[in-house]
Amino acid sequence: MLLEAIYHVPRDKWAYAYDTSTIHLRVRTQKNNVECVVAMTGDKYDWERTYYEITMEKAASDGMFDYWECAVSPQYKRLSYGFRFHNDNETIYLTDTGLSHDYPYPPGGYFEFPYIHEVDVFKVPDWAKEAVFYQIMPERYCNGDTSNDPEGTEPWGGQPKYDNFFGGDLQGVMNHLDDLTELGINAIYFTPLFLSPSNHKYDIVDYKQVDPHFGTNELFKQLVDQCHERGIRVMLDAVFNHCSDQFPPFQDVVKHGADSKYKDWFHVNEFPVAVNDGIPTYDTFGFFANMPKFNTANPEVKKYLLEVAEYWIKEIHVDGWRLDVANEIDHDFWRDFRKVVKGANPEAYIVGEVWSDSLIWLMGDEFDSVMNYPFADKVLAFFNGAMDGRTFADNMASLIMRYPQQTNEVVFNMLCSHDTQRLLNRVGNDIRRMKLPVVFLFTYIGTPCIFYGDEIGLTGGDDPDCRKCMEWDPDKQQTELYDFYKLMIQLRRKHKALREGRFRFLKADPNDPCIIYERVDDKVHFIIWMNNTDQPRTLTHPLVKNDWYDALSQEKVDTEDGIMNINLDAYGYRILCRSLQ
Prior knowledge:
Helix content is 24%, strand content 25%.
């Protein structure tokens, strides 16, 4: 065995409490180097009576490693454990004291999970596992009230620019709640709603006021109430990293300089505040002078922003926050943010905008989830032909092993957003190719999100082109694409196996862009077949049972001598399932 590849630490994603009675253990080995891993578990105070061996499952593999996993339910909420590794000619043990060929006499020197304290268990909102999110930029969704249009509002459907307006508002969203319900949406993510001079509202002037071009606080409360009546949750965008240069405390700093009582609200490097050769004398989001960065370690700033977070949860009853530029804010702030938000609503959903590995924010004391941009990048790279099935499977395994299971179940998966090209653009404007990543999105682990308009074929390049007005003319909508989205949403919401069931690749081969994978729980077994090529293909896989049917058409699908043969059109897919009850 390659001993250097064996890895485990008794914390983080490697040993954690999944719930108040279950501990998940993970260990890593070199790929295809170990045949079997056994977790040796027991209570250190009563080892002989509580000793129990668990053969671990190979939960995932990437290009270099295998990852083994098991769930343990200790009798007394505490656990001592070690690992035993087997291959043809060798047995190795791993405990807290290290690797050994000799049996380590228990429990001294074994790894420990001292106790499952309920207060320490990382709990995520159950409703987020059921959610299908729909991201809305209010300014571009629907103009429902022309009386609040900004000056210079352009006709609906024009070319988006960085600084133009089309008059979208909250009334427009309210006018289409029935449409969202018909589609199957049960959660909305709003980009910022608060008073701001821009069309995107990521430079906020007043965090407690809905922008008058969108409506009023009272109208937003009505919208939230109407959403809740339909079973739709509402998540807002929290821009707490920075504000607008028109934010009153910052304007006070502009006016009074070092004498301003707000000077420590920001990171001012030199007075007076100014922009020299394009570089502000104060820290900003990027180098945008109109977005000065908050000093979130300042007690007054923290108090102000945490009151904002609590206000919209308590008074308006929103269901969660998406946190803009979350990785550029200090951890101490986010820990207090979680306490305040969860204190106001324990079921509030907290999603951080972090574009890379986010484990340090996902240990139970900061976020519930993050925007899973690595998911979008890897999925679209595969379906655009940039990798074969084996590489794709390795990439997805790496993502699954990044986080604890409870985070994987609610990680915020999307294929595009207001910061990227539209999905249809990202797949070469080919609807056949677009459907494959959408099928994957709705049959994969995590919480899926649709960017408004994707379901009717809205196109758009890089920002600002991706922020086009929603198309409401039925003659200009891709109705066949809409029906496909609706069907996929219905399927996911109907079956828990597609939300929380086990995920595993069944076919993912080198030099082959076709894949087969499964989702399964104790009720239903799904197998998804995908032909990611421009030619018809027949995919085969051994299946003993002969009670399979097409999950979308309900057509019975038979095996032949224990083999399933599925004929797929170019860029075709098939979702088969069978009942396990």
